[in-house]
Tryptophan--tRNA ligase (Plebeiibacterium marinum), 329 residues
Amino acid sequence: MQTVVSGIRPTGNLHLGNYFGAVKNFLRMQEEYNCYFFIADYHSLTTHPTPENLHNSVRQILAEYLACGLDPEKSTIYIQSDVPAIAELSLLMSMNAYLGELERTTSFKDKARQQPNNVNAGLLTYPVLMASDIIIHQADKVPVGKDQEQNLEMTRKFATRFNHMYNQDYFKIPQPFNYGEALIKIPGLDGSGKMGKSEGNGIFLVDEPKPLQKKVMRAVTDSGPTEPNSPMTEPIQNLFTLMDVVSTPDTIEYFKDKYATCEIRYGDLKKQLAEDIIKFTTPIRERINDIKANEAYLSKVVKMGREKAQASAEKTVKEVREIIGIKRF
Ligand code: TYM
């Protein structure tokens, strides 16, 4: 059976981008693969969360994973820092990751721009830690959104380089994965770019219906089509991209026809979109609140995952140490 690994940083609540870019695939993959899904708390330290915020965010993502339908009996669900072997592998892998390639990574350049007073070494070596997360379980497939494509490219590069360096076929070379084929990017409601936790444009699974509806009704639009079948501007395409993931084909067709014949009223489109998003998020939101209140269950899940993830990770690190020449006397 093939192995799947993916993770999410605990930097806030899950939004629709996280759900449709990543979690939706996790749910289907856990039925078919040997899955490891984790909470990337080491990775979130690059932005210096307070200790309290970090802990609350980890609990939140854990509850959200479970509320979305991740099943600890089917998948190994764990917290990255519960598996110190990942940190060791990251150290070992960093010895053949080069400064130039790390500095050229788009996510490093973006972050360095976003937080100029905190360009820490963790930001630079982020792709090495991420590669270690993945190859430590010998993953075949990694379900992620489009924004992670370059990090996956780096993972493949580091794993291949290790194999060449030690003349071994040791690490599997993992593939980014989405059931819908191409990796996806869910847009925000601000007219351009992707939905993100830090972009201030997110629709969160925990959003209550009223504020959620307000967010959607405030989405950027344009002044409307003036000629039949005119091409859509980016803000309008974005609304349809969101509809694609939450609305029925009939609804989408109805509004596309209205657009094509210039009869569309963006207010109606947004109202329908908000309604469909609320229909989708409501049962998940309710489950999140229930699960978060069940401390004993959360502890049990974390313990189960920790043991399985540690066993798999420690096996790899033991083998890597031997390949490198770190041998017991
Ligand atoms: P993170 O925490 O930023 O996002 C988690 C997952 O959500 C996807 N995603 C999106 N997909 C589509 N549209 C969007 N607007 C959108 N926003 C976020 C991301 O692509 C990701 O799949 N570096 C990773 C965490 C990580 C990881 C790993 C992932 C650490 N180690 C190993 C996979 C394997 C990150 O920051 O994701």
